[in-house]
Amino acid sequence: xxxxxxxxxxxxxxxxxxxxxxxxxxxxxxxxxxxxxxxxxxxxxxxxxxxxxxxxxxxxxxxxxxxxxxxxxxxxxxxxxxxxxxxxxxxxxxxxxxxxxxxxxxxxxxxxxxxxxxxxxxxxxxxxxxxxxxxxxxxxxxxxxxxxxxxxxxxxxxxxxxxxxxxxxxxxxxxxxxxxxxxxxxxxxxxxxxxxxxxxxxxxxxxxxxxxxxxxxxxxxxxxxxxxxxxxxxxxxxxxxxxxxxxxx
Length: 249
What we know:
Structural class: mainly alpha
Oligomer: single chain
CATH topology: Heme Oxygenase, Chain A
CATH superfamily: Heme oxygenase-like
Largest sheet: none
Strand content: under 5%
């Protein structure tokens, strides 16, 4: 069995290998073709994800016997849904503001269920959060935040979506609050991206549980990579860029 520190590094390596080593189409679009039409595609799909994300914590909390882990998830949910100390509205509503600034009608954003690839990805995390043992479910859901944490960033280049990413679009400052809040919550030492791996390393305390967590970390990261790749392909199309020209065919 690996020590907690070694296990954290092992998880981080798997995340980097499956999320950042090979650029997905969204990364290609962000770095080379960023514009408002493509951003509108991304914003609409990402709003679906943001609407579901805190609910998965609720399902996992109900199955978790460990107070420290429950406290972390409840605090994460509180920041997402009730009060973030860095902004005045919730994470979901601030992301809807971003989508509206890109031209979407607010009610349309609320009603949007996601493209088929988004609905498929949501179904994966929904099932994980409700049906799997808490530690596996935690790895599947919180592993997504770990991809933006410092442990993964130490391995190699990562493409974090920051407030500065969207500034070139010339949107109102208030429509970018979601991205400022995300940076504050996830990117730094002790943030959500960092704590995910520490909690997993604490409670995956047998060879069997470590092996299963590594399996889930790889799988959930691959699902997210594919989800972002599909969004990126549609963003490229909206920006008038062929998949062949972008190297995403």
